[in-house]
Specification:
Blueprint lengths: L1 H8 L13 E2 L8 E2 L3 H24 L3 H20 L5 E2 L9 E2 L3 E5 L1 H7 L4 E6 L5
Parallel strand pairs: 1-2
Antiparallel strand pairs: 3-4, 5-6
């Protein structure tokens, strides 16, 4: 699309007044030469378009099967850890008015889908924190 737009608009710094492509040249006659000719634009546009597609691919097509399988394994493992560590959760005493829950120390990841659905941040427990040496 970007190349088509440039070919349709024919900007003066890439094309001559009669519609021909300018050659590459710096410090020469600006009527025939350009520091940014059409072929250089195509090369730069190809790189930009490639990186845009690479960055947008997971959002458009979803994660690859390998990433999805790893995420599912981590999620099921985190569910076992949460159930196994349920006894570690202690409610604060009655003198504390907010009723906060003391969570086990470890790693948590924001569950974006559940957060988006409920409007309240929801986290998934991934496991205990490794001891620091």
């Amino acid at each position: 699309m970007g190349v088509g737009i440039v070919l349709f608009m024919k900007p003066s710094y890439m094309f001559t007044p009669d519609g021909d492509w300018k050659e590459f040249g710096i410090g020469q006659n600006e009527d025939r030469y350009s520091p940014f000719p059409f072929w250089l634009f195509c090369l730069v546009w190809a790189l930009v378009a490639y990186f845009l597609v690479v960055l947008m691919e997971p959002a458009i097509f979803g994660p690859t099967p390998e990433v999805a399988a790893a995420a599912a394994a981590a999620y099921s493992s985190s569910l076992r850890n949460v159930r196994g560590n349920a006894r570690m959760n202690r409610y604060t005493d009655d003198s504390d008015s907010d009723g906060a829950v003391e969570l086990p120390k470890g790693y948590y990841v924001l569950n974006k889908k559940a957060t988006r659905l409920s409007g309240v941040p929801k986290y998934v427990y991934l496991g205990p924190q490794e001891p620091q040496e």
